[in-house]
Amino acid sequence: MKHPLLKLEPLIWLLFGQGILLGTILLTPWVLVVGLGVPLGIVPAEALSYERAIALASHIVGRLILLGLIVLPLWKGVHHMRHSFIDFGGAERDALVAPLLYLLATIGSVLALVAVVRI
Amino acid sequence: MSDGQQKKTFVITRFDPDRDDAPRKQAYEIPVHPDWKVLDALNFIKDEIDATLSHRWSCRMAVCGSCGMMVDGEPRLTCKEALDQYGDTVDVAPLANFPVVRDLVIEADGFMEKLTSVKPWIIRAKELAVEEGPMRQSPGELEEFKQFSMCINCMLCYSACPVVANEPEFIGPAAIALGHRYSLDSRDEGAAERNEVFRGEGTVFSCSFANECSEVCPKHVDPAAAVNQAKLNAAIDWATSLVLSRGGSK
Q1: What is the interface size between A and B, counted as CB pairs within 8 Å?
Q2: Helix or strand (DSSP H, E) at B28
Protein backbone atom coordinates (compact mmCIF):
# COMPACT_ATOMS: atom_id res chain seq x y z
CA MET A 1 0.00 0.00 0.00
CA LYS A 2 2.78 2.41 0.85
CA HIS A 3 5.27 0.93 -1.58
CA PRO A 4 5.96 4.06 -3.62
CA LEU A 5 7.15 5.97 -0.55
CA LEU A 6 8.40 3.23 1.73
CA LYS A 7 12.06 3.78 0.87
CA LEU A 8 11.81 7.53 1.48
CA GLU A 9 10.00 7.31 4.83
CA PRO A 10 13.17 7.87 6.92
CA LEU A 11 14.02 11.03 4.95
CA ILE A 12 10.45 12.34 5.20
CA TRP A 13 10.37 11.61 8.92
CA LEU A 14 13.69 13.42 9.46
CA LEU A 15 12.38 16.50 7.60
CA PHE A 16 9.15 16.29 9.60
CA GLY A 17 11.02 15.95 12.90
CA GLN A 18 13.27 18.91 12.12
CA GLY A 19 10.17 20.86 11.08
CA ILE A 20 8.65 20.28 14.51
CA LEU A 21 11.90 21.31 16.19
CA LEU A 22 12.20 24.51 14.16
CA GLY A 23 8.49 25.21 14.35
CA THR A 24 8.60 25.04 18.12
CA ILE A 25 11.98 26.58 18.85
CA LEU A 26 12.29 29.27 16.20
CA LEU A 27 8.87 30.15 14.83
CA THR A 28 7.35 30.74 18.27
CA PRO A 29 9.86 33.46 19.30
CA TRP A 30 9.65 34.85 15.74
CA VAL A 31 5.90 35.30 16.13
CA LEU A 32 6.46 36.79 19.60
CA VAL A 33 8.96 39.32 18.24
CA VAL A 34 7.18 40.28 15.01
CA GLY A 35 3.58 39.73 16.08
CA LEU A 36 3.73 41.14 19.61
CA GLY A 37 7.13 42.69 20.34
CA VAL A 38 7.17 45.22 17.53
CA PRO A 39 3.48 46.29 17.67
CA LEU A 40 3.70 46.71 21.46
CA GLY A 41 6.91 48.71 21.18
CA ILE A 42 8.94 46.20 23.22
CA VAL A 43 11.21 45.59 20.23
CA PRO A 44 12.25 48.81 18.41
CA ALA A 45 10.77 48.78 14.90
CA GLU A 46 14.03 49.87 13.29
CA ALA A 47 15.58 46.58 14.43
CA LEU A 48 13.48 45.06 11.66
CA SER A 49 13.92 47.84 9.14
CA TYR A 50 14.13 46.85 5.46
CA GLU A 51 17.87 47.53 5.26
CA ARG A 52 18.68 45.42 8.29
CA ALA A 53 16.32 42.64 7.25
CA ILE A 54 17.67 42.44 3.69
CA ALA A 55 21.24 42.49 5.01
CA LEU A 56 20.44 39.60 7.33
CA ALA A 57 18.57 37.65 4.67
CA SER A 58 21.29 38.16 2.05
CA HIS A 59 24.03 36.73 4.23
CA ILE A 60 24.76 33.06 3.54
CA VAL A 61 23.81 32.09 7.11
CA GLY A 62 20.65 34.18 6.86
CA ARG A 63 19.72 32.46 3.61
CA LEU A 64 20.25 29.02 5.13
CA ILE A 65 18.15 29.90 8.18
CA LEU A 66 15.37 31.26 5.95
CA LEU A 67 15.44 28.14 3.81
CA GLY A 68 15.20 25.92 6.89
CA LEU A 69 12.42 28.02 8.38
CA ILE A 70 10.33 27.75 5.22
CA VAL A 71 11.08 24.24 4.01
CA LEU A 72 11.12 22.19 7.21
CA PRO A 73 7.76 23.35 8.65
CA LEU A 74 6.35 22.77 5.16
CA TRP A 75 7.30 19.10 5.41
CA LYS A 76 5.98 19.00 8.94
CA GLY A 77 2.69 20.38 7.71
CA VAL A 78 2.13 17.94 4.85
CA HIS A 79 3.20 15.01 7.03
CA HIS A 80 0.62 16.02 9.65
CA MET A 81 -2.00 16.39 6.91
CA ARG A 82 -1.19 12.91 5.61
CA HIS A 83 -1.52 11.34 9.06
CA SER A 84 -4.70 13.27 9.82
CA PHE A 85 -6.10 11.98 6.53
CA ILE A 86 -5.25 8.41 7.59
CA ASP A 87 -6.75 9.00 11.05
CA PHE A 88 -9.99 10.14 9.47
CA GLY A 89 -10.31 6.88 7.57
CA GLY A 90 -8.24 7.61 4.47
CA ALA A 91 -5.68 4.82 4.92
CA GLU A 92 -6.96 3.07 1.80
CA ARG A 93 -6.05 6.05 -0.34
CA ASP A 94 -2.72 6.81 1.34
CA ALA A 95 -0.82 5.51 -1.69
CA LEU A 96 -2.37 8.34 -3.70
CA VAL A 97 -2.62 11.11 -1.12
CA ALA A 98 0.85 10.78 0.40
CA PRO A 99 2.81 11.24 -2.88
CA LEU A 100 0.54 14.17 -3.76
CA LEU A 101 1.17 15.94 -0.45
CA TYR A 102 4.90 15.29 -0.55
CA LEU A 103 4.97 16.52 -4.15
CA LEU A 104 3.43 19.78 -2.92
CA ALA A 105 6.11 20.03 -0.23
CA THR A 106 8.81 19.31 -2.81
CA ILE A 107 7.48 22.05 -5.12
CA GLY A 108 7.31 24.44 -2.15
CA SER A 109 10.86 23.54 -1.18
CA VAL A 110 12.19 24.16 -4.69
CA LEU A 111 10.34 27.50 -4.88
CA ALA A 112 11.74 28.45 -1.46
CA LEU A 113 15.23 27.54 -2.61
CA VAL A 114 14.86 29.68 -5.75
CA ALA A 115 13.47 32.59 -3.72
CA VAL A 116 16.22 32.38 -1.13
CA VAL A 117 18.95 32.25 -3.79
CA ARG A 118 17.46 35.28 -5.57
CA ILE A 119 17.25 37.54 -2.50
CA MET B 1 -22.58 -7.52 53.18
CA SER B 2 -24.51 -10.80 53.25
CA ASP B 3 -27.93 -9.18 52.92
CA GLY B 4 -28.57 -6.66 50.21
CA GLN B 5 -25.32 -7.60 48.53
CA GLN B 6 -24.34 -5.21 45.75
CA LYS B 7 -25.30 -6.21 42.24
CA LYS B 8 -23.85 -5.17 38.94
CA THR B 9 -24.95 -5.82 35.39
CA PHE B 10 -22.34 -7.04 32.94
CA VAL B 11 -23.09 -6.38 29.31
CA ILE B 12 -20.89 -8.84 27.50
CA THR B 13 -20.19 -9.10 23.79
CA ARG B 14 -21.01 -12.63 22.66
CA PHE B 15 -20.04 -14.15 19.34
CA ASP B 16 -20.20 -17.77 18.23
CA PRO B 17 -18.92 -18.01 14.66
CA ASP B 18 -20.93 -21.23 14.11
CA ARG B 19 -24.25 -19.62 15.02
CA ASP B 20 -23.99 -15.83 14.93
CA ASP B 21 -23.64 -13.61 11.89
CA ALA B 22 -22.45 -10.72 13.99
CA PRO B 23 -21.44 -10.11 17.62
CA ARG B 24 -24.36 -9.50 20.00
CA LYS B 25 -24.64 -8.16 23.55
CA GLN B 26 -25.82 -10.25 26.48
CA ALA B 27 -26.52 -8.84 29.95
CA TYR B 28 -25.93 -10.69 33.21
CA GLU B 29 -26.91 -9.26 36.58
CA ILE B 30 -24.81 -10.82 39.32
CA PRO B 31 -24.01 -10.25 43.00
CA VAL B 32 -20.49 -8.84 43.36
CA HIS B 33 -18.00 -8.60 46.22
CA PRO B 34 -16.28 -5.30 47.00
CA ASP B 35 -12.80 -6.76 46.53
CA TRP B 36 -13.48 -8.39 43.17
CA LYS B 37 -11.60 -7.65 39.99
CA VAL B 38 -13.43 -7.57 36.65
CA LEU B 39 -12.08 -11.06 35.92
CA ASP B 40 -13.69 -12.45 39.11
CA ALA B 41 -17.07 -11.35 37.81
CA LEU B 42 -16.46 -13.00 34.44
CA ASN B 43 -15.40 -16.22 36.14
CA PHE B 44 -18.53 -16.07 38.33
CA ILE B 45 -20.73 -15.75 35.25
CA LYS B 46 -18.92 -18.62 33.53
CA ASP B 47 -19.01 -20.91 36.62
CA GLU B 48 -22.46 -20.11 37.99
CA ILE B 49 -24.68 -18.72 35.23
CA ASP B 50 -23.56 -19.39 31.68
CA ALA B 51 -20.93 -22.01 30.97
CA THR B 52 -20.95 -21.13 27.27
CA LEU B 53 -19.17 -17.81 27.92
CA SER B 54 -15.62 -17.93 26.55
CA HIS B 55 -12.83 -15.76 27.87
CA ARG B 56 -9.09 -16.16 28.24
CA TRP B 57 -7.22 -15.84 31.52
CA SER B 58 -4.49 -17.55 33.45
CA CYS B 59 -2.32 -16.04 36.17
CA ARG B 60 -4.68 -13.57 37.90
CA MET B 61 -1.71 -11.34 38.78
CA ALA B 62 -1.04 -9.18 35.72
CA VAL B 63 1.93 -11.23 34.55
CA CYS B 64 0.69 -13.63 31.88
CA GLY B 65 -1.03 -11.03 29.69
CA SER B 66 -3.95 -13.31 28.74
CA CYS B 67 -6.98 -11.51 30.14
CA GLY B 68 -6.91 -8.25 28.17
CA MET B 69 -10.41 -7.06 27.19
CA MET B 70 -12.26 -3.84 26.50
CA VAL B 71 -13.84 -2.81 29.81
CA ASP B 72 -16.22 0.12 29.36
CA GLY B 73 -14.53 0.75 26.03
CA GLU B 74 -10.94 0.87 27.32
CA PRO B 75 -8.35 -1.89 26.88
CA ARG B 76 -7.65 -3.31 30.33
CA LEU B 77 -6.20 -6.37 32.03
CA THR B 78 -9.36 -7.69 33.68
CA CYS B 79 -7.40 -9.33 36.52
CA LYS B 80 -5.89 -5.96 37.45
CA GLU B 81 -8.93 -3.69 37.36
CA ALA B 82 -10.87 -3.40 40.63
CA LEU B 83 -14.59 -3.72 40.02
CA ASP B 84 -15.55 -0.94 42.47
CA GLN B 85 -14.17 1.73 40.11
CA TYR B 86 -16.94 0.89 37.61
CA GLY B 87 -20.62 1.78 37.72
CA ASP B 88 -23.65 -0.47 38.08
CA THR B 89 -23.36 -1.55 34.46
CA VAL B 90 -20.03 -2.73 33.09
CA ASP B 91 -19.50 -3.30 29.39
CA VAL B 92 -17.02 -6.05 28.50
CA ALA B 93 -15.96 -6.69 24.90
CA PRO B 94 -13.06 -8.45 23.18
CA LEU B 95 -9.89 -6.41 22.55
CA ALA B 96 -10.40 -3.98 19.69
CA ASN B 97 -8.36 -4.23 16.46
CA PHE B 98 -8.19 -8.05 16.56
CA PRO B 99 -10.26 -10.75 14.86
CA VAL B 100 -12.57 -12.49 17.35
CA VAL B 101 -12.41 -16.27 17.76
CA ARG B 102 -15.39 -16.47 20.09
CA ASP B 103 -17.03 -14.19 22.69
CA LEU B 104 -14.15 -12.40 24.45
CA VAL B 105 -11.35 -14.45 22.90
CA ILE B 106 -9.29 -12.78 20.17
CA GLU B 107 -7.04 -14.22 17.49
CA ALA B 108 -3.42 -13.35 18.34
CA ASP B 109 -1.66 -14.95 15.34
CA GLY B 110 -1.11 -11.63 13.55
CA PHE B 111 0.54 -10.18 16.65
CA MET B 112 2.74 -13.26 17.05
CA GLU B 113 3.95 -12.90 13.45
CA LYS B 114 4.79 -9.25 14.03
CA LEU B 115 6.58 -10.13 17.23
CA THR B 116 8.83 -12.73 15.59
CA SER B 117 9.45 -10.42 12.60
CA VAL B 118 11.44 -7.99 14.80
CA LYS B 119 13.71 -10.83 15.99
CA PRO B 120 13.25 -10.33 19.73
CA TRP B 121 16.31 -12.30 20.76
CA ILE B 122 20.02 -11.60 21.04
CA ILE B 123 21.69 -11.74 17.62
CA ARG B 124 25.46 -12.30 17.52
CA ALA B 125 27.67 -12.25 14.44
CA LYS B 126 29.70 -14.94 16.20
CA GLU B 127 28.72 -16.76 19.38
CA LEU B 128 31.21 -16.53 22.23
CA ALA B 129 32.95 -19.79 22.99
CA VAL B 130 32.24 -21.20 26.45
CA GLU B 131 35.91 -20.71 27.46
CA GLU B 132 35.58 -16.99 26.81
CA GLY B 133 33.30 -16.76 29.82
CA PRO B 134 30.01 -14.90 30.25
CA MET B 135 29.16 -11.66 28.50
CA ARG B 136 29.23 -9.04 31.19
CA GLN B 137 26.80 -6.18 31.39
CA SER B 138 27.00 -3.17 33.68
CA PRO B 139 23.95 -1.90 35.63
CA GLY B 140 24.00 1.15 33.34
CA GLU B 141 23.84 -1.03 30.23
CA LEU B 142 20.99 -3.02 31.77
CA GLU B 143 19.13 0.19 32.57
CA GLU B 144 19.25 1.15 28.86
CA PHE B 145 16.69 -1.49 27.92
CA LYS B 146 15.27 -2.88 31.15
CA GLN B 147 12.04 -0.89 31.00
CA PHE B 148 11.19 -2.21 27.53
CA SER B 149 11.77 -5.81 28.63
CA MET B 150 8.86 -5.61 31.11
CA CYS B 151 6.30 -6.13 28.31
CA ILE B 152 4.01 -9.12 28.93
CA ASN B 153 2.58 -9.27 25.37
CA CYS B 154 -0.94 -8.53 26.60
CA MET B 155 -1.73 -6.62 23.38
CA LEU B 156 -3.63 -3.82 25.13
CA CYS B 157 -1.43 -1.35 23.23
CA TYR B 158 -2.59 -2.80 19.90
CA SER B 159 -6.19 -2.25 20.95
CA ALA B 160 -5.49 1.34 21.96
CA CYS B 161 -3.38 2.26 18.91
CA PRO B 162 -5.21 4.35 16.28
CA VAL B 163 -2.56 3.44 13.69
CA VAL B 164 -3.09 -0.30 14.18
CA ALA B 165 -6.81 0.34 13.66
CA ASN B 166 -6.19 2.06 10.33
CA GLU B 167 -3.15 0.20 9.05
CA PRO B 168 -3.26 -3.48 10.06
CA GLU B 169 0.22 -4.09 8.64
CA PHE B 170 1.83 -1.66 11.13
CA ILE B 171 4.28 -3.65 13.32
CA GLY B 172 2.73 -2.00 16.37
CA PRO B 173 3.83 -0.81 19.81
CA ALA B 174 4.71 -4.00 21.75
CA ALA B 175 6.64 -5.68 18.92
CA ILE B 176 8.61 -2.51 18.14
CA ALA B 177 9.35 -1.99 21.85
CA LEU B 178 10.59 -5.58 22.18
CA GLY B 179 12.69 -5.40 19.02
CA HIS B 180 14.12 -2.08 20.20
CA ARG B 181 14.83 -3.64 23.62
CA TYR B 182 17.23 -6.11 21.94
CA SER B 183 18.81 -3.46 19.72
CA LEU B 184 19.62 -1.51 22.92
CA ASP B 185 21.18 -4.56 24.59
CA SER B 186 24.98 -4.26 24.83
CA ARG B 187 25.31 -8.00 24.02
CA ASP B 188 23.30 -7.71 20.80
CA GLU B 189 24.64 -7.14 17.27
CA GLY B 190 21.37 -7.29 15.35
CA ALA B 191 20.30 -3.65 15.29
CA ALA B 192 20.95 -3.31 11.54
CA GLU B 193 18.74 -6.32 10.77
CA ARG B 194 15.94 -4.96 12.93
CA ASN B 195 16.28 -1.48 11.43
CA GLU B 196 15.53 -3.02 8.04
CA VAL B 197 12.38 -4.60 9.48
CA PHE B 198 11.47 -1.28 11.10
CA ARG B 199 11.74 0.42 7.69
CA GLY B 200 9.88 -2.38 5.92
CA GLU B 201 6.21 -2.93 5.08
CA GLY B 202 4.93 -2.39 8.65
CA THR B 203 7.19 0.64 8.99
CA VAL B 204 7.72 2.31 12.37
CA PHE B 205 7.24 5.64 10.56
CA SER B 206 3.50 4.92 10.38
CA CYS B 207 3.30 5.76 14.09
CA SER B 208 1.75 9.20 14.53
CA PHE B 209 2.71 9.38 18.23
CA ALA B 210 -0.78 9.36 19.70
CA ASN B 211 0.86 7.89 22.83
CA GLU B 212 -2.20 5.74 23.57
CA CYS B 213 -0.01 2.62 23.84
CA SER B 214 1.89 4.07 26.77
CA GLU B 215 -1.33 5.31 28.36
CA VAL B 216 -2.88 1.84 28.52
CA CYS B 217 0.23 -0.26 29.20
CA PRO B 218 -0.42 -2.13 32.48
CA LYS B 219 3.32 -2.63 33.02
CA HIS B 220 4.30 1.03 32.39
CA VAL B 221 6.61 0.05 29.55
CA ASP B 222 6.21 3.30 27.53
CA PRO B 223 6.13 1.67 24.08
CA ALA B 224 5.63 5.11 22.49
CA ALA B 225 9.12 6.10 23.62
CA ALA B 226 10.53 2.87 22.17
CA VAL B 227 8.76 3.45 18.84
CA ASN B 228 10.12 6.97 18.58
CA GLN B 229 13.65 5.92 19.53
CA ALA B 230 13.32 3.15 16.94
CA LYS B 231 12.29 5.73 14.32
CA LEU B 232 15.37 7.83 15.03
CA ASN B 233 17.68 4.80 14.97
CA ALA B 234 16.10 3.49 11.75
CA ALA B 235 16.43 6.94 10.14
CA ILE B 236 20.07 7.40 11.22
CA ASP B 237 20.84 3.86 10.06
CA TRP B 238 19.22 4.66 6.71
CA ALA B 239 21.20 7.89 6.32
CA THR B 240 24.52 6.22 7.19
CA SER B 241 23.76 3.33 4.84
CA LEU B 242 23.62 5.87 1.98
CA VAL B 243 27.16 6.95 2.78
CA LEU B 244 28.75 3.73 3.99
CA SER B 245 27.83 0.57 2.16
CA ARG B 246 27.45 -2.28 4.59
CA GLY B 247 29.15 -5.52 3.57
CA GLY B 248 26.57 -8.15 2.65
CA SER B 249 23.65 -5.90 3.47
CA LYS B 250 21.03 -4.80 0.95
Answers
A1: 39
A2: strand B24-31
Q: Under CATH, to which class is A6-117 assigned? A: mainly alpha
Question: Would you state the pLDDT for residue A77?
Answer: 94
What are the structural domains of chain B? Answer: 7-106 (3.10.20.30), 109-243 (1.10.1060.10)
Residues of chain B with pLDDT under 50: 1, 248-250
**What are the percentages of helix, strand and coil residues in chain A, rounded to 5?**
85, 0, 15
Interchain contact B166–A (C-beta under 8 A): yes
Q: How far is residue A118 from each of residues A64, A71, A107, A109, measured CA to CA in Å?
A: 13, 16, 17, 14
Residues in chain B with CB shorter than 8 Å from the CB of A12 are: 205
Chain B CA closest to residue A80: B208
The answer, as to whether pTM is greater than 0.90, is no
Nearest Cα to Cα of residue B58 among B43, B72, B74: B43
For chain A, domain boundaries: 6-117
Contacts of A11 (CB under 8 A, 6+ apart): B235, B238, B239
Complex ipTM over 0.85 = no
Contact (CB<8Å) A10/B235: yes
Q: Please report residues of A whose CB lies closer than 8 A to that of B232.
A: 17
Using the beta-carbon criterion (under 8 Å), do B166 and A86 form an inter-chain contact?
A: yes
The alpha carbon of residue B13 is apart from the nearest alpha carbon of chain A, in Å, by: 25
**Any residues with CB less than 8 A from the CB of A2 and at least 6 apart, and which?**
A9, A94, A95, A98, B201, B203, B206
Contact B104, B139 (CB under 8 A): no
Amino acid letter, B29: E
